[in-house]
Amino acid sequence: MIESNQLVNKATSQLSYTLQIADNALIMGHRLSEWCGHGPILEQDIALTNIALDHLGQARSLYQYAAEQFNALPAAEKEKFFVSPALQSIIATGKAMDEDDMAYLRDGWDFRNVLLVEQPNKDWAYTVVRSLCYDAFNFFFYTALQKSNDETLAAIAEKSLKEVTYHLRWSSEWAIRLGDGTEESNKRIKEAVTDRWQYTGELYTMNATDKAMQEAGIGTNLDDIKAKWQERINAVMSEAGLDIPSTGWMQHGGKEGRHTEHLGYILAELQFMQRAYPNMEW
Amino acid sequence: MSQQTAEHKSEWPLWEVFIRSKAGLDHKHAGSLHAADAQMAIENARDVYTRRMEGVSIWVVESKYIHTSDPDESASMYEPANDKIYRHPTFYNLPDELKHM
Fold it and tell me: Do A43 and B39 touch (CB under 8 A)?
């Protein structure tokens, strides 16, 4: 009995872990997609839309895997796992969950993305800083995740890493251009770094899920990622002529489903069609 | 007019993009785009012109460095070649021993 409890715990942690990664990808992709048609120049509009689609593609693979894991859970665990009423009603009918249910029918409490990715685009500098902090994390995270015992996660990591390598190159170059650019661009990126820094700590702070998954050989050690992340960010910032803010209070909660008010607005837009016209396809 | 000039000044220069496809041997003109410098031009070209797996190599050159022939001179430039079909190597009889020509 104890053994089977441990197996169930591992399965639910693994599902939470998959959703943490998937939700980061979906919300980041959605934020970047908001630039579509609003980019400062056509070429960058297309660049950002490409990157948004990369994130969305990663989210799809991860949600497919999450749905598969959820459908394999014992019935009692399924009922406990999500709070969202729309998902509860699917569970009650006994139907299998799919990737769309995960994206379109979960409420904010069930989203496990870090707070950084849900922060508004605001302006080009804020967008670049958010991307830089997230891309640098993603790069080292996916590099390490390739060695996961979980073959599906390892395969997704390997495929995603090529895309993430380009994302990091894009955001690093723009950070340097803005920091080392005009007086105005320097002023704006400085403000963005100062403002957004408080959301970076959550990326590399391990919660219970991260710890359980690291012990199981599935997850990565975020302490290692933190050191690499800091080294990379320091290098880009110094080339951009920007100072690293002295580490103060870091915001947390996203991975546990406690979000800033921004996530609600994102979900309202993202989920509107499926909520207003259930089961519609196009 | 002065407003136009100011606007023009704030625009990034134009670049011509040449892409070599996987099967192709040479770089072919794909189009043009705006970028602040060569590195950004290559990256913009990657995003604008190779999204559908069109290429494996990119060349960019600032449009101002491309020099073209004058269309008004095309009569003297190109028409004299029209009646000199003997410049095509189709008038020579090849010996039977020569294969693969």
Answer: no
pTM of the model: 0.88
Task: Indicate the domain borders of chain A.
Answer: 2-276
Encode chain A in three state secondary structure. CHHHHHHHHHHHHHHHHHHHHHHHHHHHHHHHHCCCCCCCCHHHHHHHHHHHHHHHHHHHHHHHHHHHHHHCCCHHHHHHHCCCHHHHHHHHHCCCCCHHHHHHCCCHHHCCCCHHHHCCCCCHHHHHHHHHHHHHHHHHHHHHHCCCCCHHHHHHHHHHHHHHHHHHHHHHHHHHHHHCCCHHHHHHHHHHHHHHHHHCHHHHCCCHHHHHHHHCCCCCCHHHHHHHHHHHHHHHHHHHCCCCCCCCCCCCCHHHCCCCCHHHHHHHHHHHHHHHCCCCCC
Measured between CA atoms, how close is B44 to chain A, in angstroms? Answer: 6
**Domains, in order of start, for chain B:** 2-67 (3.10.20.520)
**Measured torsion, CA atoms of residues A25, A79, A258, A24, in degrees rounded to the nearest 10:** 0
CB proximity under 8 Å: B 26-45 to A: 33-36, 39-40, 43-44
CA distance B24 to chain A (A): 24
ipTM, 2 decimals? 0.74
> For chains A and B, what is the number of CB pairs under 8 angstroms?
27
Give the full edge-to-edge strand order of the sheet including B28-34: B28-34, B14-20, B57-62
Q: What is the pLDDT of residues A207-239, one digit of tens each?
A: 999 999 999 999 999 999 999 999 999 999 999
CA distances from B41 to A52, A217, B24, B54, B93 (A): 20, 43, 22, 17, 51
pLDDT digits (tens, 9 = 90+) for B40-91: 999 999 999 998 888 899 999 999 999 999 988 888 888 888 888 777 777 7
CA distance A34 to chain B (A): 18
CATH number for A2-276 (one of 3.40.1410.10, 1.10.238.10, 3.90.1570.10, 1.20.1260.10): it is 1.20.1260.10
